[in-house]
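dude i think i finally got it to work??
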Amino acid sequence: MDNSMHLNCGCHTGATRREFLGAVGGIGAMGLLSASGLAISADAAKPHRIDVHHHISPPSWVVELKKYKLDSPPVTNWTVQKSLDDMDKAGIATSITSPTLPAVGFLGPAEAAAVARSSNEYAKKLTQDHPGRFGAFALLPMPHVDETLKEIAYALDVLKFDGVAFMTSYDGKFLGDKAFAPVMEELNRRKVTAYTHPNEPACCVNLSVGVPTGVIEWATDTARTIASLIFSGTSAKYKDINFIFSHGGGTLTAISDRFSTWVVSLPAFKARGFTGASVMAEIKRFYYDTAQVANPINMAALSRMVAPSQIVFGTDYPYRLGVEHVTGLAGLFNPAEMKMIDRDNALRILPTLKG
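look at this
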């Protein structure tokens, strides 16, 4: 596979993935600092939020990204102190860390396993150096199944992590693919929380719509992997996995009706027992974070699709600021619902944080 083509496609817009991520990081840096007035300052004095979507840059992972020219300014410029400063400004008590795309799927099995292990040990040290401020979702050496199973055992049994982190796809395979069944079976046995982050999809090059693929395709890759999990039967079979989908489920809210009416009307899916009710039951049991969708339009759709009990606070730092999400969610939910979104829902599926 040509990794540079797959992961850096600017799709005739003149913008590479690195340039796009750099631009997004710049927007985040400018952000809504003018909105971080007295209300946020007062709120930050009593940090309580749990951010389930907070990216870090483990050194060994950054080295590999640079080697393959997959790095970007938000990745290379990240520091622990910048994370802590952003958390403090937004009243975030704890951030659950994870690297962002492309994770380590661009590496061979041995290299991916080595980088995942060192990255996870780095994340563990972060939790030890700053007690209570960080948790971690384990970076997995997907799509390499044997290596992934070994890292799951190490991350959960030795490092005592809060869960695992997936990309939505790996070189054209989505999470419901039968190749990943051993991984799902193990996570289900352990009743693990699995955070997911969109990846650059292998499907979509030469999309000449004038914007980088990340604007549309990353959100759509999330919807694709949800479809894969539901219509492969994976999510119904492994109900003890708590899936968290980034960015409010991406484009799922716009196409959920097609899932629950159009797809289930097709003979092949009828024969397998899919109904509108069964599809919506899976959609409604998943968790969705607020990263980059903390606004009235996205939240109106998401909160009609699922109950507030299934929404968790996420920021996508360093690509967006914590303060932006606090101000963006203000007034959209009642205090009891906001308490669930800010903290309680995450505690329910991340029991290691309760101490």
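The beta strands are 49-55, 92-98, 134-139, 163-167, 169-170, 173-174, 193-197, 242-245, 287-289, 311-312.
im so relieved honestly
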